[in-house]
Structures are given as C-alpha cells and as structure tokens.
Amino acid sequence: MSSPEEKTLILKSSDNEEFLVKESVAVQCITIKNLVEDGCDLDAIPLLNVDSKNLAWIIEFMEKYADSTSTDAEKKDFDTEFVKKPFNDVLGLILAANYLNFPALMDVMCDACANEMKLWSVEQVREKFHIQNDYTEEEEKAVRAENFWAFE
Amino acid sequence: MKLGLKSRSRRVVQDSAVAAAAAAAGKMKNSISDSKNLDEKLTVDYCGWTSLPSELMREVLMKIEESESKWPERKHVVACAGVCKSWRETIKEVVKTLEVSRKITFPISVKQPGPRDSLIQCFIKRNSSTQTFYLYLSLSQALADDGKFLLAARKYRRATCTDYVISLNAEDMSKGSGTYVGKLRSNFLGTKFVVYDALPPHMGAKLAKNRSTRMFSTKQIFPGVPASNYPVAHISYELNVMGARGPRRVQCVLDAIPASAVKPGGVAPTRMDSRVNGVDSFQQTPASWSTSNDLNTALSETLHGQSDGSLVLRNKAPRWHEQLQCWCLNFHGRVTVASVKNFQLVASPDSGTVGAEQGKVILQFGKVGKDVFTMDYLYPISAFQAFAISLSSFDTKIACE
Predict the structure, then answer these.
(1) Is-contact B165 B180, C-beta < 8 A?
(2) What letters, b where the CB count within 10 A reaches 16 and e where it falls short, cover B329-356?
(3) Neighbours of A67 (CB within 10 A)
(4) Which of A75, A79, B30, B327 has its CA 20 to 30 A from that of B349?
(5) How far apart are CA B115 and CA B93, in angstroms?
(6) Which of A86, A119, A117, A93 is nearest to B60 (CA)?
(7) Is the pTM of this model over 0.90?
C-alpha cells in the first residue's frame, strides 16, 4: 500500500500510451526528475522520443533498480536477461536512456552493445551500424596488417 | 483506409485518440497538421534506429577500451579502430600513450617510451634453426609462458656485417612490407652496433642534422614502398679492465632520446602514429610526435633538449661475489641462468640524473632457459629499442669465454 505522499506520475510515450509510475522510481531518469522539480508533472509527462515498447522496458528496469530489496547479484541476473534483445532494440534503448538521462540503464545497455560487438568481425560491425568503410584500398591493407598483429 | 478528397479529415476522425491528444494539447487550430505528424510518427518503425550518434558511439567504444585492458582481449580495441576513420579517431583519443596508460594497444606502442615507474615485462624466444627471435609481452607472472607477440627479428649474415631485420610480422621480414619496423646492424667484429628505425626520428633529435630535411618523406605515405633507415642508437661492447676474465662493458647512445628525458621533469619523444602501417599516415597532421599533449610545449622542449645531448646508457657493473666466485647482478628473480649475455642498463652518471633515478634500471635482459630470455624495460626507451639492444647481446663476441 503506497503512502499518502507517494506520488504517481503519468508517463506518456510518443505513441500515446500512458504508463503509471511511482515518482520515486521515475526520478531515476534525470530528465523526468528535472520536469518534476520544475512542476511539469501535473498532467501526463510526454516523452516524445520514447515509444511504448521502449518505455515499457525502461519502466521494468527502473522498478528493478528502485527496489531496495534486490541484491547486486539479483540485479546482475536481471541485467543479463534484460539485455537479451535484438541488437536494434539494444541501440534503441541506448538512445532512450540517453534522452531520459538514465545513467544506470545507459551503463548496462552500452556494456551489452560492447559485448555484442566483440563477437563480430569488422565487416559485421560495419553492417550492423550501417557504417561506410571510408578507408582506401591501401589504408585497408594497413588496417588488415594491424589486425593481423593484434590477433596474432 | 479509403483514399480520396476527404482522406485528411477521415484520418482525424478515425483516430479519435490522436484527435483527443491534439485537443488536450490545446492546439485545435493545428490539429490537422498535428495529427498528420502523429500519424507519421505512428507509422515510423522505431526499429529503424540502426546507428548511434557519435557521442553515444564514443561511450560504447570507451566501454570496450576499459573492459579489455589485457591481451589477447585488447585486440577488440584495435579491431574497432579498423571499422572506419571516425572510430579510429575516437579510439586513439581514448587510448593513451604507453607511458601514461601502461597498456600496449596498437603496433605503434612498440615504438613508444615505456611507463616511468613500472617495468614492461617481456620475453624473447630464440629459434636457432631459423635464426629468428620473437619478442612477446608477458601476460602472466610466469617468466616466459603466456605472451602477446610484439616483434620478430631475423638474423642475416652479410660479408662485412650482420643484420637483424625487425618486423611486426614474423612471416614477412621483407623491408618493403608495411610491417618492417627497423633493424640492428653489427660491424664485422660484433663490437659495435647501430639500431636503425624505419621511421624518421623526432625532429629534435641530433640526427636531423639538416634542418631543411623534410620529416615526412612522401615515399613513406604508401605502405609497401621500402622505408628509409634512420640510425637511432649506437651500441658498443668493450672488454673491461680485467680483459676477458671480467664482465664486458656495454654503452648505448640513444640518439633519438635527449639526456634530459631522465632528468626531473624531463620528457621523451613519443611517436603517435605508425607510418609503417600506413593507416595513420593518411591524416595529414603536421606532427606525429608528442612529448606531452601540448604540441607547442613539445616543440620547445625538444629544441631545448637538443642542447644537452643524447641519452647514454651503460651497463650496471656486477659485483664480485667472493664466496660464490662469480659476478652478480640482482635481477629480482627475472633472470635465472647465469650468462655473459645478461645485463642491466642504467642511465650513465654523466646524464645528470639525481637521487633515486641514478641507479634505476632502464633495460634488463637475461637468460631463463635454453632459448628463452626475459627482457624488461621502462621509460624512456621503447620495446623496439629494448629488443634491438638485447639482440646485440646475442651477437657480440666480446667476453664469450
């Protein structure tokens, strides 16, 4: 049972879904914290850059991390399961965590992204990030020699 | 959805939630355009985010660099730099020089001065049948077990001298390849050696006698074109006053390092890019060196340094142990087999080093097994210079009785 002072916020995703979240949980996102402090929480707080899919995940993460009874080991296990998402969703959560200024989520998702990348070849990384290879043929040769040395 | 003249109003009516939201926002006047925008947003697939803005990409790359500080995992940091030029720039910013980070990362690390207060521990394995020497960075406490390959050297005996060609690729020792790093050349008697670097030395070094000499030869921009050879160190071996009965004396003049480097507040030139590999040479930065992060300071420091000469290293004289009847040096457990090849180099007393710096061992080399040797070095020399100096110890004929 929530105490009388325990305020609930309405967070609205970019696709207009509304989520009820306790203020103490939601303020882990510094963007939301600032809005609350500025008194902008009277109605639903519109989060224009976060869709309902991502917001639902973020709330799930926030609630786990706000829970004082969960141990570090439990959080780690939670993180391990939480990051098991398609790579594009991992990137989406990084962008959302950045927009919401949520350091704990940012940390976990960047770690997840980094760990994924380590499994890929240079070509695969370029593909997944849609990066254009801007090395010339000569430079590419030197890159390969550098990698040959590193992977020796 | 039916298309037609009334399609716009249809959209507004059909999607009442959207209309309600627009109304709630108090923008009735613009509700049509607002709802159109919202409609567009609804149809955008948020899974279309397939790239990160550069600031966030930097966060991820920093994670990779922080989490992979040891080899072989550190290869991922190098791999990331190979993805594209902006990633390379970010990674290079994040990865500090060897002196600062104490971590070997890119091949250029073998040409950078070691850390000031902790030895970089390496080992060398000799393959006598192929006359090849392999330098590894030690990865464990074991003397010569787990290692990350750094450099290879192959001995070529010529008519009047011997060359040890040093390369980043043990399978490609040709001077024309992009992996050629430098060489050690000995005179016929094996008493004097010169270390040559494939890349030009720092502009403050004594070698750049001709001020108008271009530091960046266009030939070196393209890997695969034979690099020039720049002398960067001179080594000489002598018998000591006791002749062949005593330990030999080694003197090493490091032409590319000013003597001031080992004085309090001194700095050593640090190469930032590896032209031999070719990749970074495409950044047309005016200087590929740094003696500090500030380029201006670097220039003034080297000009100042030029006036006080090159750094000279001498071997630490062993003490005669009367009871054991042998010459002794304290290798702190890093050398386990007695050999005339073993040595410790310290900055020569004439360098003006004071106090604790005076006896500091800058390079230590010694035998631990039949074809296995440890090699430890620290600031201001690099792995390449340490390796070359150690190779000379294999070759010299002085006091081999």
Answers:
(1) yes
(2) bebeebbeeeeebbbbbbbbeebbbeee
(3) 13
(4) B327
(5) 18
(6) A117
(7) no
Burial class of residue B321 (count of CB atoms within 10 Å of its CB; 0-12, 13-18, 19+): exposed
SS3 content of chain B, % helix, strand, coil (to 5): 30, 25, 45
B260 and B310 Cβ atoms separated by less than 8 Å: no
Q: How do residues B89-121 score in pLDDT, each as one tens digit?
A: 999 999 988 898 999 999 999 999 999 989 999
The one-letter amino acid at B253: V
Q: Read off the tokens for A74.
A: 């439990």
Closest CA relative to residue B311, chosen from B204, B163, B387, B183: B204
Distance of CA B258 to the CA centre of its chain: 19
Token output for B6: 């009334």
User: CB contact, 8 Å: B227 with chain A?
Assistant: no
Amino acid at position A112, single letter: A
**Which 3 state secondary structure label does DSSP give B28?**
helix
Q: Residue A26, SS3?
A: helix
Chain B: residue whose CA lies nearest to A92: B49
What confidence score (pLDDT) does residue B46 get? 34
| Number of residues in chain B | 401
On the CB side of A68, CA atoms within 13 Å amount to: 1
Tens of pLDDT, residues B351-363: 555 555 567 899 9
Nearest to B170 by CA among B120, B126, B138: B126
The stretches in chain B having pLDDT less than 50 are 1-49, 204-226, 276-288, 291-307, 401
ipTM of the complex: 0.91
* Least CB–CB distance from B75: residue in A89, A131, A151: A151
H or E element that contains B42: helix B31-43
Please tell me which of the candidates B56, B72, B84 has its beta carbon nearest to residue A94: B56
| B164 close to B151: Cβ distance less than 8 angstroms | no
Q: How many CB atoms lie within 10 A of CB A43?
A: 10
Q: Determine contact, residues B275/B220, Cβ cutoff 8 Å.
A: yes
Burial class (CB within 10 angstroms; exposed 0-12, middle 13-18, buried 19+) of B271: buried
Chain A CB contacts of B198 under 8 Å are none
The answer to whether the beta carbons of residues A145 and B169 sit under 8 Å apart is yes
- In angstroms, the CA A125 to CA A129 distance is 6
User: Which residue of B60, B80, B106, B218 is the best one to mutate when testing the A interface, meaning the one whose CB has the most A CBs within 10 A?
Assistant: B60
